[in-house]
Design goal:
The chain has 14 helices and 14 strands. About 40% of the residues lie in helices and about 15% in strands. The strands form three sheets. A six-stranded parallel beta sheet has the order 2-1-3-4-7-8, sandwiched between helices. A six-stranded parallel beta sheet has the order 11-10-9-12-13-14, with helices on both faces. The longest helix has 18 residues, at about 350-365. It has helices spanning about 15-30, 50-60, 65-80, 95-105, 140-145, 150-165, 180-190, 235-245, 275-280, 300-305, 315-320, 335-345, 350-365, 370-385; strands at about 1-10, 35-40, 80-85, 105-110, 125, 130, 175-180, 200, 220-225, 245-250, 265-270, 285-290, 310-315, 330. Helix 2 (about 50-60) runs parallel beside helix 6 and helix 8 crosses helix 12 (about 335-345). The chain is α/β, with parallel strands linked by helices and about 400 residues long.
């Protein structure tokens, strides 16, 4: 089977791009023929000096641009049987989708964030949850409140959402959607109007280490991920001060820091997957202090695969990731004192941390193994091709 993937590489990195790349690697290992159209948002100009570039990105919904020409050439050369798009804003035009419809090529879209219902994609503003863009009139709130901290960016993002919806570029040209969690899938059906019968919930692939760590031996409380306002780093730092325990925060060296880094917790900079895995394995617990809904909570699942329990916000998909009292604990989002109490519970009872870590490892093995992800995505492709009356080995007309 020949599959063409199209996606935008975020300038800040993060789990979305990691999941996309892992999916592509898994499919190549499966024996699928894979081609990729990827464009990097780092090439987009920064700040007000980048006004023309940002407006072009936002208004790319209104015309094709170079990404469509490149995509069209790939279609002619590679002749894919399925096109799989991920997050494409702002560097890949959504006008690539009608090109697939014209050729009878089914399109699968992975919805890795809340782009369809929030121009900021996180449903947060000023460090708090925000759902204003679900209201009638929707996206103008993003411009009014300058949600992206740059009026050109806010305007471009709002215009993109309005245009895609008004022109039906997703509704008319995407055959099947993939959400990373039940919460994200239900949200998109309810608020973005995605058809439930054309949406599958498929968890991201998570690396499974050969052995589990012993959480009882963990010597610090961990945070890993982007340093961004919606991630709740001040809550994590306040809990560190309240407990007086060692707290550490890890970020990838290439990831952008878009929020003030709170004093207190030690900052660890990782350079590759091995360093991040070592960081997980040295922890008593990992904290997900998110102030936004999250679409999955990838770093939590990664820590659980190592046998490390997770303490997370009782919010969105994070609350679904954790079975409270079994493989982790929950606290009310933004409540540092509640987080401190949960941290103390695991710190003062190493045997409880170990038991929860073992349950977390078992869940990871059964739910998030890479092979499971690869098989489920392949099943989506095969179902679409069978509905079109084409065997998996036959190219579209």
């Amino acid at each position: 089977m020949r599959v063409l993937h199209a996606y935008n590489q975020h300038r800040g990195g993060g789990g979305a791009n990691n999941v996309t790349q892992a999916t592509i690697e898994l499919q190549r290992a499966q024996g699928l023929q894979v081609e990729v159209l990827a464009r990097n948002a780092l090439h987009l100009p920064q700040g007000l000096r980048g006004l023309p570039g940002r407006l072009e990105a936002g208004t790319g919904v209104l015309w094709g641009g170079s990404s469509v020409r490149e995509f069209r050439a790939l279609l002619e050369r590679f002749q894919p049987q399925v096109v799989h798009v991920h997050e494409i804003y702002p560097m890949v035009s959504p006008w690539i989708l009608p090109e697939c419809t014209r050729r009878g090529i089914p399109v699968v879209m992975s919805c890795v964030d809340f782009r369809m219902t929030c121009p900021l994609v996180t449903h947060t503003r000023d460090g708090r949850s925000c759902t204003r863009c679900l209201d009638p009139g929707r996206e103008w709130h993003a411009i009014r409140h300058n949600c992206r901290g740059s009026l050109p960016e806010s305007a471009a993002s709002a215009l993109y959402n309005v245009g895609v919806r008004a022109l039906g570029l997703f509704a008319r040209h995407v055959d099947h959607y993939i959400a990373p969690s039940a919460f994200a899938g239900q949200w998109l059906v309810r608020h973005a109007g995605l058809p439930a019968d054309r949406l599958s919930v498929i968890s991201p692939p998570v690396h499974m280490p050969d052995t589990a760590a012993d959480a009882a031996q963990g010597s610090y409380i961990a945070y890993a991920g982007r340093f961004a306002p919606e991630k709740g780093l001040p809550v994590f730092a306040a809990a560190a001060r309240a407990t007086g325990l060692p707290f550490r925060m890890a970020r990838h060296h290439a990831s952008l820091v878009t929020t003030d880094v709170p004093a207190g917790p030690e900052v660890v900079v990782t350079h590759d997957a091995a360093e991040l895995q070592a960081f997980y394995r040295g922890a008593r617990a990992l904290v997900l202090p998110s102030l936004w809904f999250e679409t999955f909570g990838l770093v939590g699942a990664e820590a659980m695969s190592h046998g490390i329990p997770v303490i997370g916000s009782r919010l969105g998909s994070v609350a679904d990731l954790i079975e409270e009292g079994v493989d982790g604990l929950l606290f009310e989002a933004g409540d540092a004192q509640a987080l401190a109490r949960q941290v103390r519970l695991l710190w003062d009872d190493p045997s409880l941390a170990a038991r929860m870590g073992q349950a977390a490892r078992a869940k990871a093995l059964s739910h998030w193994a890479p092979q499971r992800h690869a098989e489920q995505v392949l099943q989506v492709y095969e179902t679409l091709l069978s509905r079109a009356g084409r065997p998996a080995g036959v190219a579209p007309p």
